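Go through this one:
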Amino acid sequence: MIPIEETVFSRKRWIESKMLAYGFHKANKTYILEKPFLDGDFKTVLSVTPKGQVTGKVIDSMPQDEYYQLRQEAANGTYVNKVRSAYAALLTDIANACCGDVLFASPQANRLTQAILKRFQVNPDFPWEHSSWEHSSRYQSYGAFRHRSNRKWFALIMNVKREVLDKDGNTSLIDILNVKISPAQGEELRKTPGIYPAYHMNHKTWISVVLDETLADEKIGELINTSYQLTTT
């Protein structure tokens, strides 16, 4: 079960002045907020690191214990769903008050987006952003970078569960970049930490690069440049 916090704040950038105005306080470089909801029956303790990573706890006010049912996928009763909805609404209010929007979840993805704009004068488009077909929400943050002439993709940024790459059951979300490669480079590139066979694309001619700072922007930029040249026709 993807944490509610990750869903709400995945494409948000925290703004310190707005956080402090909302009621966050700073402790050992971490921003902390305690706030009641559902008429005081529950409270959240929200922590935000300097890198924008969010951890949330929901405390049941009566026993003063963490309300673990919130995180249990099998817990689907009326009451627990009421708590989830109220908590999600509170987090959305916090996001609206304390954050600005960014195109992608990871800082590296947003930096690379600016580098692509500077080099190729191309912004991403989001083909599935307004799609209404079933399960489309998981694809709405997928950004495609296209040639202005032939409209072919030369890069695609996706936010996926880590397990689709490592096959280890890790359901945390991560940004990845798909780029085209020469098949002759494939074997060597896929030995590089942070590079995988392409998710949802041809493994011979595409790779997926994890955007978690494993690879430097300069190295990924070289891969993007190659992909751009390979997709010009």
